[in-house]
Design goal:
Blueprint (H helix, E strand, L loop, with lengths): L1 H9 L23 H4 L5 H9 L2 H4 L8 H7 L1 E5 L2 E10 L4 E8 L5 E4 L1 E6 L5 E6 L2 E8 L4 E7 L7 E8 L4 E9 L17 E3 L1
Antiparallel strand pairs: 1-2, 2-3, 3-4, 3-7, 5-6, 7-8, 8-9, 9-10, 10-11
């Protein structure tokens, strides 16, 4: 997975257009309990706390673009806790993300995401990564993070993973993986239909 991220970063020629909705004025997320959410600082304060530590703690594994982080990072409030989605960098066709759990007492910790990748024998090996490359979406009502990681720009292969936010960690629920084909146009498979590797 780290190799795919490095290839994606290296292939980045022009930065993508900025996402219209930024972290500077985030809306209240669906599923938020307004009373318990009040125990947390504002989204801007939470994000600044993370930005201040990115480089010293190497939260982005060396893939840090401050402009991308400040324009596109998000805070998702669920109950009295928050999940910080730190956009570390933008590549040619996807982004690099790191995730942080922010607690009511002001403490926070980087999160890891479990992934699978095939080894040289074709067997799938489980690993834990501090960053993930892909296209991420978070559903606050279901507390579900979905990451589609493209192995190449056309998006015909790669992985699709679902993680459940428990308030303290991102627990892997499903992981799908599609090998790249020499004839992508003939074998285009929707990510939701990739072969399921886990569970």
């Amino acid at each position: 997975m780290a190799i795919l991220v490095m290839i994606a970063i290296a292939g980045c020629n022009t930065p993508p257009a900025p996402i219209p909705e930024t972290s500077s004025s985030p809306p209240t997320e669906p599923g938020t309990d307004p009373e318990s959410a009040d125990t947390l600082p504002t989204n801007e304060v939470i994000l600044q706390t993370v930005y201040d530590q990115v480089e010293s703690l190497d939260l982005c594994n060396g893939f840090y673009q401050p402009e991308a982080a400040q324009a596109e990072s998000r805070v998702y409030r669920v109950g009295d806790r928050a999940l910080v989605e730190l956009v570390c960098a933008n590549a040619a066709y996807q982004s690099v993300y790191a995730y942080v759990a922010y607690q009511p007492d002001g403490s926070w910790q980087p999160l890891s995401l479990d992934v699978f990748y095939p080894d040289e024998t074709g067997q799938f090996v489980r690993a834990s990564e501090g960053t993930v490359g892909g296209l991420a979406t978070f559903d606050p009502e279901q507390a579900l993070l979905t990451v589609f990681s493209k192995a190449r720009g056309i998006g015909d292969c790669g992985s699709l993973a679902d993680y459940r936010w428990s308030g303290g960690e991102l627990e892997l629920e499903t992981f799908r993986y599609q090998e790249c084909s020499d004839s992508p146009e003939e074998n285009l498979v929707e990510p939701a239909n990739y072969p399921q590797i886990y569970p």
